[in-house]
Amino acid sequence: MVKIIIAAILGVILGATGPYYASIGWYSKQQSLYAGALYGFCLNFSFMIAGYTGTASLLSRLPFFILIGLFGAVCGVALAAAGYFLKAAYTTPGPVD
Question: Is this model's pTM higher than 0.70 or not?
Answer without folding.
Answer: no
